[in-house]
Amino acid sequence: MSAGQISVPIVFRGPNGAAAGVGAQHSQCYAAWFAACPGLKVLTPYSSEDARGLLKAAIRDPDPVVFLENELLYGESFPVSAEVLDSSFCLPIGKAKIEREGKDVTITAYSKMVGYALKAADILAKEGISAEVINLRSIRPLDRSTINASVRKTNRLVTVEESFPQHGVGAEICTSVVEESFGYLDAPVERIAGADVPMPYAANLERMAVPQVEDIVRAAKRTCHRSVPLAATA
After folding, report:
1. Integer Cα distance of 206 and 22 in angstroms
2. CB contact set of 146 (below 8 Å; sequence gap of 6+)
3. Is residue 31 a contact partner of residue 163, using CB atoms and an 8 Å limit?
4. Residue 114 CB burial class (10 angstroms; 0-12, 13-18, ≥19)
């Protein structure tokens, strides 16, 4: 509104996404809500490297940044290099990271779902499918160039997120690929997201409401024509 004359260097940091057994009051992913606001930057770290590098970038940024952490990742450990521990280490906002290179299918994910995507890639590799896993890191700005470059190489796309499917991050990625790389697609895009319901409290229903590793595996296999399409089993 000030045409760049006034900066608002503030970081809103907090947990986001499904927790465990706390129902709809505490287990929703609102990354897409924040990312819909022009002017906001939205970061979603997965690893210790992401958390350190992106938080420093957020604090140094002159604009408002929403920093969304999955609280279930607080208890996980990640390898950390000497470079990451260096006091000067910082990551650029708006740049995704290719966590695993592949040639058959691209899988995009953010926050906790990156770990699920990597586990799915391990399973797919045993079946001869080479999956490229992209850790988005930043939801807004979104690294469209990295995503589209990967899809133009693999010719297939699976998007993964904990959030609701409607108006989600995956929907935005699908649109970007259709607009910029449609001619490179060899199969329909697969979108894996949380169920379109408030988060259930019961553990068995909660598991059904959030994406699982096997969901990603099945979707990737469908894009590679290794399984029966959903329409054929409906």
Report:
1. 10
2. 95, 96, 98, 134
3. yes
4. buried
Nearest-CA neighbor of 59 among 48, 72, 43? Answer: 43
CA distance 165 to 189: 14
161-199 burial: b if 16+ Cβ within 10 Å, else e: bbbbbeebbbbbbbebbeebbeeebeeebbbbbbeeeeb
The three-class DSSP label of residue 218 is: helix
Given the DSSP bridges, would you call strands 105-109 and 157-160 parallel, antiparallel or unpaired?
A: parallel
Strand order of the sheet with strand 11-15?
11-15, 65-69, 41-43, 138-140
Q: For 107, which DSSP code?
A: E
Specify whether the CB–CB gap between 174 and 159 falls below 8 A: yes
Q: Are 73 and 50 in contact (CB under 8 A)?
A: no
Contact (CB, 8 A) for 222 and 190: yes
Task: Tell me, yes or no, if the pTM score tops 0.90.
Answer: yes
- Helix-then-strand count for the chain, H and E: 9, 9
Nearest to 129 by CA among 224, 47, 52: 224
Residue with tokens 């809500």: 33
Span 107-159, pLDDT tens digits: 999 999 999 999 999 999 999 999 999 999 999 999 999 999 999 999 999 99
E strands, the chain, where?
11-15, 41-43, 65-69, 97-100, 105-109, 131-135, 138-140, 157-160, 190-192
Structure tokens at 150: 């990967």
Residue linked to tokens 């379109």: 196
